[in-house]
Specification:
The protein is mainly alpha-helical. It is built from four helices and no strands. The radius of gyration is 12 Å and the shape is globular.
Length: 75
């Protein structure tokens, strides 16, 4: 199981608060691939996957972008 960190817990607060637009904006500038994977795992464990389709799509799209070898973000 992925360990929760500050970024993913703050994002879960946004999602639970109903602010999907802000959550999607934060997902697009995710610090690392590992953080985004942790968020996806937390959403699956908390049974929120599928409840917010736009957030799920943003996570999936950005996982693919961050996993691409030439499209990584520099620190």
């Amino acid at each position: 199981m992925a360990r929760a960190n500050d970024w993913s817990s703050k994002l879960m607060t946004l999602i639970n608060g109903g602010n999907q637009a802000a959550a999607i904006a934060q997902i697009k500038v995710a610090p690392t691939l590992k953080d985004l994977q942790a968020l996806q795992t937390i959403m699956t464990i908390s049974k929120m996957k599928g409840r917010y389709p736009r957030v799920d799509a943003a996570i999936t799209d950005n996982l693919a972008l961050l996993a691409a070898p030439r499209l990584h973000r520099s620190p």
